[in-house]
Amino acid sequence: MNVILLAIIVVAGIGLIAGLGLSLASVLMAVKTDEKVEALRAELPGANCGACGFSGCDGYAEALAKGEAKPGACAPGGAEMNEKLGEILGVSVEMAEPMVATVKCNGTCDHVGNKMFYTGVSTCKAANMMYGGTLSCSFGCLGFGDCEKACQYGAIKVVNGKATVDKDKCTACTACAKVCPKSIIEMMPEKKKYAKVVCSNKDKGAVARKVCEVACIGCGKCAKVCPSEAVVVENNLARIDPAKCTACGACVDACPAKCITF
After folding, report:
1. Other CB atoms within 10 Å distance of the CB of residue 261
2. pTM of the entire structure?
3. What is the mean pLDDT of each run of 10 residues along the chain (262 residues)?
4. Which of 41, 113, 252, 255 could anchor a disulfide with 61, C-beta 3.0 to 4.6 Å?
5. Domains within the chain, CATH numbers bracketed
């Protein structure tokens, strides 16, 4: 009986000492938290998309608290949330220009053919490893929906073999652009009306038209008729500067491939 009692006392003593040690360690080794960072982080949406230019919501909150960033850069949070960040920091908020994801490809199933049959993993990333994908155009949308899966807002869907963006749902979080192995999704200004080249093919004209009926052929007619010099042709592909475009429509009418749209 004395042995049992002694064992209980020893175990209880060890537990007491260990408890005191842990309590002391928690005080001495505690990581101090910044209440301002916590308040800022609580307002952020938690998308961790990196559209603000930082590693995620935690990184952006810390940068805001240190004065290394300004509120207004969180696109998924919207204007109301960014205003709250400004209130916490005691500063005015200048919202970044609203952007929207734009798929620079118009190669639907109606316009592009297949160069092979693919039975591998149904992802754009995997298919792209097989000679640039299954489609005849090696620059276009692969259509397996990696972007659709990455979007937390349901703003992008694959329709008729090509990714299509719902502008009303898009928050410009850039998640879709990051996972696209073809890099054909670009964040572009949302509000201003301007012409866009919905093609990424850089092959020469004859080759481009052979693989896609609506591919840019780099003919330069769009650049010649543009009164504001907003259009340039580089690497056989037309490119339009939204800042210079006046939405006159001259390039849209002049394009023989009909790959320029508003």
Report:
1. 11
2. 0.74
3. 69 76 67 78 86 86 88 84 89 84 93 88 93 91 95 94 94 92 93 91 93 94 95 95 94 95 91
4. 41
5. 36-89 (1.10.15.40), 98-190 (3.30.70.20), 192-262 (3.30.70.20)
